[in-house]
């Protein structure tokens, strides 16, 4: 809320609302998988998927991938994120572990970046399997070295605005519900 005066405008940041973020994460995860499958000739089932980061979107994405039969690896910067991912049952590694886990990275079929900082660079991309697909859902400018992908014929996509593109009706309903909730709470 920007002001308590009854006649002043009411401001609500929907992107900061946990309910909106969690519901949007579902649409984002589903769209991310669709984008990956468009670029690949293999199924998610039986694949090895690397998910960088372990925030709201990454958590839902990892859950979806695992439920569809993928072997999920979570690479996260923060120890708490790695611990949370390990407790769920995912393989985990930090970005500092890349040299140690070369053999695991060489088996990755799909790399999904959710980190809004340049983290998926040559040190990771050069180790992925030769048919790996890279999908980046991080906000601009993304977290993947797209130039490296292009130079080495790695199929990639920077997937932005997935909820509105993939499921505009559901996304609209999420925002409408949030508006109704915000207005009700403001009264």
How many structurally independent domains? Answer: 1
Question: Which CATH architecture is right?
Answer: 3-Layer(aba) Sandwich
Which fold name is given in CATH as the topology?
A: Rossmann fold
Count of runs of 4 or more consecutive helical residues: 8
Q: Give, in spatial order, the strands making up the sheet with the most strands.
A: 3-2-1-4-5-6
Biggest pleated sheet: 6 strands, parallel
How many beta-strand runs? 6
Give the proportion of residues in helices: 40-55%
Q: Classify the beta-strand content into a percent band.
A: 5-15%
Query: What radius of gyration results from the CA coordinates?
Result: 18 Å
Derived structural class: alpha/beta
Termini gap:
12 Å
Shape: elongated
Overall mean pLDDT: 87
Task: Summarize this structure as a short list of keywords or feature phrases.
187 residues; alpha/beta; Rossmann fold; six-stranded parallel beta sheet; 8 helices; 6 strands
Write a brief caption for the model.
This protein is α/β, with parallel strands linked by helices. The protein has helices at 18-39, 56-67, 79-88, 102-105, 122-125, 146-151, 162-166, 168-186, and strands at 48-52, 71-75, 91-93, 110-113, 133-136, 156-158.
Verbal overview:
This protein is an alpha/beta fold and 187 residues long. The chain has one domain (22-186): Rossmann fold. 44% of the residues lie in helices and 13% in strands. It is built from 8 helices and 6 strands, in the order αβαβαβαβαβαβαα. It has helices at residues 18-39, 56-67, 79-88, 102-105, 122-125, 146-151, 162-166, 168-186; strands at 48-52, 71-75, 91-93, 110-113, 133-136, 156-158. A 6-stranded parallel sheet has the order 3-2-1-4-5-6. Helix 1 (18-39) crosses helix 2. The protein is elongated. The protein starts with 17 loop residues before the first helix and ends with a helix.
């Amino acid at each position: 809320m920007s002001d308590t005066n009854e006649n002043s405008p009411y401001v609500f940041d929907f992107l900061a609302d946990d309910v909106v973020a969690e519901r949007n994460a579902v649409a984002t995860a589903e769209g991310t998988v669709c984008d990956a499958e468009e670029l690949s000739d293999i199924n998610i089932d039986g694949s090895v998927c690397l998910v960088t980061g372990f925030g709201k979107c990454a958590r839902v994405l990892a859950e979806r991938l695992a439920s569809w039969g993928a072997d999920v690896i979570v690479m996260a910067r923060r120890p708490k994120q790695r611990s949370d991912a390990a407790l769920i049952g995912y393989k985990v590694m930090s970005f500092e572990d890349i040299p140690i886990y070369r053999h695991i990275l060489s088996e990755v079929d799909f790399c999904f970046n959710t980190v809004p900082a340049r983290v998926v660079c040559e040190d990771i991309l050069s180790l992925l399997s030769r048919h790996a697909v890279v999908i980046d859902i991080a906000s601009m400018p993304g977290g993947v070295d797209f130039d490296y992908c292009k130079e080495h014929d790695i199929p990639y996509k920077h997937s932005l605005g997935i909820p509105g593109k993939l499921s505009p009706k559901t996304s609209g309903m999420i925002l409408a519900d949030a508006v109704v909730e915000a207005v009700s709470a403001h009264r």
